[in-house]
Each structure stands twice: as C-alpha cells, then as structure tokens.
Amino acid sequence: MSRPHLVVIDPQHIFASPDSAWGSPFFPEAFARIRELAPLFDGRVTVTRWLPTADRATAWGDYFREWPFADVAADNPLYDLVAGAAELSPHPPVEEPTFGKWGEALAARLGPEPHMVLTGVSTDCCVISTALAAADAGVRTLVVEDACAHSTAENGRAALHVMSLFGPQIELVTTAEVRRRLTA
Q1: pLDDT tens for residues 102-122?
Q2: Which residues 6+ apart lie within 8 Å of 163 measured at CB?
Q3: How many domains in the chain?
Q4: Residue 55: which CATH number?
Q5: CA-based angle 1:138:2, to the nearest 5?
Q6: Rg (Cα) of the chain, in Å, rounded?
Q7: Containing domain of residue 144, as a range?
Q8: Which pTM value belongs to this model?
C-alpha cells in the first residue's frame, strides 16, 4: 500500500470566517488538528480551494442566485486561504469550481495507488463530496472526524454517518489514530 497523502479541503476565509454566511464555527479546532497532522506527512500534503468559476448557465447559476454574497471574482479575498494554510504544503493548491475536489488534478497529485487522509471544511459539503467520489474511484480514504469542520453539529454527524456507510473504501478516524498509524 502506498504512503498516505493528507488532503486539506478548502481552508478559505469564506468557510472559516465567523462573519461569512458559510463560516464553520468548528473551523478553528479542526484547523488546529490539521496543523498538527501536516508535519507527519513529509510534504505529502495537498490543500484545495473552491473557486466560484462554474458556468452560470448550469444549476450553478441557481446556486449563486441563492448565495449572491459568494458570486464574486475568484480573486476576491473571500476565496483566499486562511493564515497558515499555504505553508502546510510544498505544492500549489488544487483549485476546482466544484464541491468535490476528487478529479484529475487531485488524482495526479496522489499518484498511483492513492491513499488519502481527508480533512477540512465543510464535512457536510465539500468533504463528503470529495470522499464519496474518491471512494467510487477506488481510493483508500481516511476521514479525520475531528479535523473536519461542519456547518452545524447535526449536519456534521449526518455527513460522517453517511461516509461511514462506505467502508472499507472510507474509514472514519481521529487525529490521534492517524498519529498512531503514522508513527508506529
């Protein structure tokens, strides 16, 4: 089995700031755990960014009409990484206009026999979308429950429950469990 790669989903101001309609109240705790984990991966870390560049002629147009505050240029500070996120990885971020970040760019980053340790925000949107698509592609995926931030506690529990149904491709773990596995 290949060595795992840490993937940090969308640590951006729009999802982290308490002033944002999409800000997760759980982000500070989750991000602290992500920062603890990153050094254990010896540079095998990828940070992703969600960008508002989807075609507005699709259902994304309806989405942005519902969330007009987010319908701004991709270079708006809302979409910047939070302080400390860029330093987690020696690689440029994988940027996608989709909830799920599993695709060609992330697959190429992880290489053959991909094994992913998944963290980030939001558990009940971009994390679950990434995990399910990766599982479908045959990727061994560990979702670090306490290093994921969700919109609400209830939504986080629901998303984690759904992901738990996809074993053995998806396994729910804690930061402590990842640390034990990597240092054993």
Answers
A1: 999 999 999 988 899 999 999
A2: 128, 131, 132, 143, 170, 172
A3: 1
A4: 3.40.50.850
A5: 15
A6: 15
A7: 5-183
A8: 0.96
